[in-house]
Write a sequence for this structure.
DNA sequence: CACACTCACTGTTATAGAACTCATTGAAGA
DNA sequence: TCTTCAATGAGTTCTATAACAGTGAGTGTG
């Protein structure tokens, strides 16, 4: 048997087809896929081959397999994984801290040149500017300015961002977040952020710049966060199995 | 066929056996493993089953498979993976920068209390203190002080650390690095490091504290690195497939 | 009614055999 | 001497079949 007729392995084609059906909603999150034997028959392929396709999906965290029960579509915690500032919030909550979000500004206005470049907007295009302050342990720790591309921005501009994360709002608006790239640099607290963070100018901070992309590689959100060095740190764990990256609190 | 006689899957047992042989040096790094057909015969197992075992090893980055050529033991870039400051060097070299290491100090002396605690030494125990400055693009960028536990320290104290990385020296001394944890905080350049880094005091820096562990969870190296914010940044990429973390240069 | 058992259904692991692609090598031909 | 091409040996993908192991609902018994 030839692996295929168009230079792509059979199991990869099947994996791609199933992945498309999952992402398109043909199989809903939490729903069970048809049994392996049934799928293998419908694809005209052996159980072994089908399982190899499922293994691909499992590696991508698209499905969860449970012996004796079935194969289920994984819940869409993609956005959860991607939002480091939300995982920050989660990390801190797990440590017992009370994390709150205050909205300091929200407006649709013309995007500055740097933001326009990041979001690939035409000069003069407008976007939603969202300014938030994250507090925990009763003290402000992160000052964050996010710009959201239109037309997505129009769908989410009226959400209550003290209770709902930006990424949850995006997901509710049907925007699937696929990728994010982030750069973190050390810096000194500037006057504008100092007003919100209640800390002297020139204090050591981490400055995070993050751009988030949809499935078709369109940038949707540009984030600029100023993170107080006295309250936050970056932790990494490296082992043979892989790499983990978390934000941690440095409350005494 | 029962998966095995002792509640462990056959392919897992084979994977564990091969992994042990690789780690023990029975198969040397870079060396080719016997052909799959030969291995499957010697384990008395099908090609499919053997390949499942190899897939495990491949997932763990222990082997590299090349179609038409063979299966090779991966070079021991475990330390490479673990040493973010060495991967920094590699990242920069890939970008065409010339990275150099200068040794500013090397001595066996009594470890300060904080270091002793990190390495789990008894108060008063001595250790190797290694002070290095990393330069690239002709400018000093990182000031790094490493403490190495004895007796490992005695085996590597005479190596030429301008040419050999600390982790290479450790590997040569038979020390297998298994895990590392690192914390990165923003900070201000202190006078001691400022002398080496040729930058004004109070400049924004990243301060990295890393502890490296051997297979038996003994801490062997404690690293404290001061990284100039004007020259270095942290980049992360998040996607469905996983997370990557690299150090990048910010040379204009 | 409560408990244990059976059985059908699920994913999992294994067998054996064959055809495929890719890289290397060495001999034949120009 | 250089080029070409077929043979070889490696990993890769697939077919076909069988048995194992966890789950849970239904069934029977006390």
């Amino acid at each position: 048997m030839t692996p295929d007729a168009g230079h792509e392995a059979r199991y990869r084609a099947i994996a791609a087809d199933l992945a498309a059906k999952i992402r398109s909603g043909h199989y809903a999150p939490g729903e069970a896929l048809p049994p392996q034997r049934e799928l293998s028959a419908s694809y005209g392929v052996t159980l072994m081959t089908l399982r190899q396709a499922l293994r691909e999906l499992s590696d991508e965290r698209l499905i969860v397999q449970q012996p004796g029960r079935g194969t289920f579509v994984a819940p869409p915690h993609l956005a959860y994984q991607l939002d480091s500032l939300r995982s920050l919030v989660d990390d801190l909550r797990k440590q017992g801290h009370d994390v709150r979000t205050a909205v300091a500004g929200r407006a649709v206005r013309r995007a500055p040149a740097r933001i326009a470049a990041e979001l690939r907007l035409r000069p003069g295009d407008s976007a939603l500017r969202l300014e938030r302050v994250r507090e925990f342990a009763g003290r402000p720790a992160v000052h964050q300015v996010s710009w959201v591309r239109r037309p997505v921005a129009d769908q989410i501009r009226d959400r209550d961002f003290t209770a709902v994360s930006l990424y949850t709002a995006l997901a509710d608006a049907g925007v699937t977040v696929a990728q994010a790239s982030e750069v973190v640099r050390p810096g000194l607290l500037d006057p504008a952020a100092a007003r919100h963070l209640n800390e002297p100018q020139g204090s050591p901070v981490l400055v995070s710049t993050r751009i988030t992309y949809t499935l078709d590689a369109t940038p949707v959100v540009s984030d600029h966060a100023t993170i107080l060095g006295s309250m936050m740190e970056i932790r990494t764990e490296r082992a043979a199995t892989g790499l983990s990256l978390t934000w941690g609190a440095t409350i005494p």
About this structure: Chain B has a mean pLDDT of 77. Residues 35 and 68 of chain B are 11 Å apart (CA to CA). Chain B has two domains: 10-73, 78-249.
